[in-house]
Amino acid sequence: MKTVIRNATIVNEHLQQIGDVLIVKGRIEKIASSLELDKREHVHEINAEGLILMPGMIDDQVHFRDPGMTWKADIYSESIAALAGGITSFMDMPNTIPNVLTQELLEGKYHEATKKSVANYSFFMGISKGNLEEALKTKTENVCGITDDGLYFDDEEGILANHPEFLEQLFSRTETLVALHSEDDAIIRYNTDKLTQLFGDDIPCQYHSVIRNAKACSIATKRVIDLSHKFGNRLHFFHISTAEEALMFDNTLAIRDKRITAEACVHHLMFNTSDYAELGDKIKWNPSIKSEYDNRILIDCLNNNRIDIIATDHAPHTIDEKTGNYFQVKSGGPLVQHALPALLELYHNGSLTLEKIVEKTSHHVAEIYRIRERGYIREGYFADLVLVDLHSPWRVSKENLLYKCGWSPFEDKEFKSKIKKTFVNGILSYDDVTPIQAPFGQRLLFEKQR
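Request: output the structure for the sequence above.
Response:
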């Protein structure tokens, strides 16, 4: 069946225009100010007058906990939540159980996604001390990249940013994108020991941002940038959280010409250290949230293209896992269901334009990862689309949460904008009025050269 979305305000490729979009067999067949269709054809018409139509978000950093931790999240539950948050495609991290450190385990996750995911999907190959040769087998055309995010370098501790000798081997040999978590372990250990002497195990939650401070991030990030310059490999930094880091990145190159790219995450834009008083351990993340000044500079660097994309780092834990003393409370929280509504708050307060939000959540993600035929509203591209009402206030509550873990740091927050409909591969997969039996998403495909 054909679908036509009429009278929408289309936000795409730095422009806004009112028009119609015709969807046929999962793809965008025609875009025009007004489409005349054969009245003899059966076409499902959607009147989108007064609504914003934008390409669906592509979230390049989620932890859907499947397999191994499905009591708190799984591919099915979290991909449904993602659709409600305007996300039509996601890339999942390898720190599931078992860790994805072999090609066999990687393909096993893809197989599960064919049965469970209602959004489009890709999965990162994990990298650690003992699997370099295995990681280098990763195919660039059907896997988003290689990462250490959520993994230890060896059985004890550490992330790759602290092991330059190993990174040299990886950077000099890989042909695919490498995405890294960047914090300095030595600084974190020193700060942890110092505060443990003061507080024992019961370190107050706000000191998480002292333990994992801005210096820990900036020193590690500079170390990795300097090393990558030596090899010219494709390097991407996850969840940049500090002003000093953000200012390290280049904004003189077009997005496809950059060899080093960076992202900011929703929580590092929306929360800062003043929010610990109200939210406590619910906003404990790694990297930690930083100051209001860091919020402001991250947004500035999104606008001036030092920071290239926005992600969620959706990492759900049960509420019990977010409770206890400092060393018991796990870092991370659920975010996909509220991703686009939260970012649209930055539009309403004048921090980001709609065009910039679309660029950072769709266009640039597609360009960084070289995703085929997604990330834009273009004729011939897959119809991964979101309809948004910018003036439909709603309040987050436990009753309207879709996360399996059952909580959100945004609970009791009122958002000004609401996701009305989400289309995945041309099929209406989420509707805010009527529950829909969502279809299954597709595996993302990529250009061979990164």
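Residues 56-369 form a domain with the TIM Barrel fold (CATH 3.20.20.140).
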